[in-house]
Amino acid sequence: MSRETKGHGHQLSEAAHSAFARLNLLGDSSVFVDALHVIERISAVGATVLIQGETGTGKELAARALHYLSPRRDHPFIPVNCGALPDGLIESELFGYERGAFTDAKHAGCGLVSQAKGGTLLLDEIEAMTPRAQVVLLRFLQDHTYRPIGGRLVSDGDVRIVASSNVNLEQLVRRGQFRQDLLFRFTVLSVTMPPLRHRGNDCILLAEHFLRRFAAEFDRPSKRLHPEAVPWLRAHDWPGNVRELENMMLRLFLMADSDDIEIVRASAAAANPTAGEPSQAQTFRTAKARAIEQFELAYLKDLLLRSSGNISLAARISRKDRSALNKLVKKHGLATGEFRAPSM
User: Fold this and answer.
1) What pTM did the predictor assign?
2) Rounded to the nearest 10 degrees, what angle do helices 284-306 and 322-331 cross at?
3) Which terminus of the chain has a lower count of CB atoms within 10 Å, N or C?
4) 91-135 per-position pLDDT tens digit
5) Which residue spans within 188-276 are E strands per DSSP?
6) If we measure between CA atoms, which residue out of 253, 243, 244 comes closest to residue 208?
7) Cβ(255)–Cβ(261) under 8 Å?
8) Which residues are paired to 78 by β-bridges?
9) What is the enclosing helix (H) or strand (E) of 35?
10) pLDDT per position as a tens digit, 289-328
11) Whole-angstrom Cα distance, residue 317 to residue 304?
12) Which residues contact 74 (CB under 8 A, 6 or more apart)?
């Protein structure tokens, strides 16, 4: 028996409600329910899907929902970050290889397409794929057949491809950074996860949900939002979306001295951690550290603007390890969603 959710009168099945709840895809706003409705409708078909949305809006959770609501639910769901796929090994990573195919191939290797057989392969940050990788993927999407490196037989790639991106791919096509024919393949079916700032009171619902979950996870007494926290949550812009809210609630839950979560005071303290400390002359070490910090912050902001907030692309531009760059971005409290190119 189906159950009607708030929104535009859309019907979501009980199976969908259960799957969305297990994956923390929670919300009552009409724009969010509309997105869930699209996910439920397209989950039953096997066509390629593109999931778009700002950083932290739940794109991977949406991909998992697509998988677990589909007939492929009993088969693997494998997520892979496209920025982590080595350009020189793209074919072997996706399609595998036979023994002796190259110098170090002492045994046959299974590729991602084979590992996800019967299931779903999520290509996260699809915009980070190099031009060569885009060609390889496009060739596979044309007929879903492939041949492992060094192999003679062509295999059938029985896998649903889901791609996700937090940047405007049409803008990348205009800049010559993404293939238009590949974008056409991905836009047959698409869903956009709305930013938290457009979801009304969902931020309150989610904040309360996270507090209940943390109480159970850490076996601690439950906590509640202070009444003054509610208007702050509604007014905040949430550049990091649901991920930002979850991390904030976790920090506040662990650091709270009472049963009430007071966001305004906690935020003020975090913004000015040295308030009340006696002033003192800067040592050389302190002055140097601050100069480095200011340089890093300015450089990162410019880098994220040029890469539209995409960490993988920013890592390639700066020639810095992606993991190290991501840590640096988090160290300075930057939200990549703030630098995303606006949708056209």
Assistant:
1) 0.73
2) 110
3) N
4) 888 887 765 455 565 566 778 999 999 999 999 999 999 898 999
5) 189-192, 224-225, 260-261
6) 253
7) no
8) 121
9) helix 30-43
10) 777 777 788 788 878 877 878 888 888 888 888 888 888 8
11) 10
12) 118
